[in-house]
Amino acid sequence: MKRVSVACLLLLIAATAAAQPANPPDLGYVPAPEFFQLPAGMNFGGVSGVAINSKGNIFVLHRGAQPLVEFDSGGRFIRALGAGLLERPHGLRIDADDNIWIADGGAHIVLKLNPQGRIIMVLGSKGTAGEWHEAGFLRNFSEPNDIAFSPRGEIYVTQGHGRGDSRVLKFDRDGRFIKTWGGKGEAPGQFNVPHSIAVDSHGLVYVADRGNNRVQVFDADGGFIREWVLFGTPAGLYIGAEPFVYLANGHHGQIIKLDMNGAISA
Fold it and tell me: What is the pTM of this model?
């Protein structure tokens, strides 16, 4: 029986929680029932993101009363955070310093929390959707989906889950806007619901272009390099031990292991 990392399994769970097929395929492993040990009376809402910090602790982002929950590597409950903080949480990442980043699509913001759970940065204007024009002081996301970080600490955000403008926005490590690229469409460099984003050790940017059934690869400044046309709906990306990319196929109940050229790997 094949084994996958906890991170990859959780990526699949988060990306497919709302769209399980009636007859899911054999994925080569058996899920562990009731892995997460929640306190009495506490349940998950719709799970939208998972991440693991440097200690191996697992963070689950969900649409419930206490939307961010931390567990140890064995699934034992540690703490719950974020009551009343989020509207419709979507993306969750943890950076190299164990800071916690959340994309809140409903509130049109991205939050950075320190490891203790205190907010230390907010990108966007809560409750206001729009475009990001730093020079004109209009600083609004339109339904942000996911976050990624370059090897130099630059921040990438994908947006446009619902009717929002589908694009990528880039910031420096301190949250200062650098540039944006994309827009709704099917051409190279355009997107139709860029649902997830990841950056490899060389600084290449991978975007799961869900509505266009592909992954697009860019250089650090948004220059189009190539695309991987896939079946299904690419919904989640995780770059593990390179040279492999793990992709959650959101409506087919699959984890797909790809090499760095986009070919399916055993």
Answer: 0.86
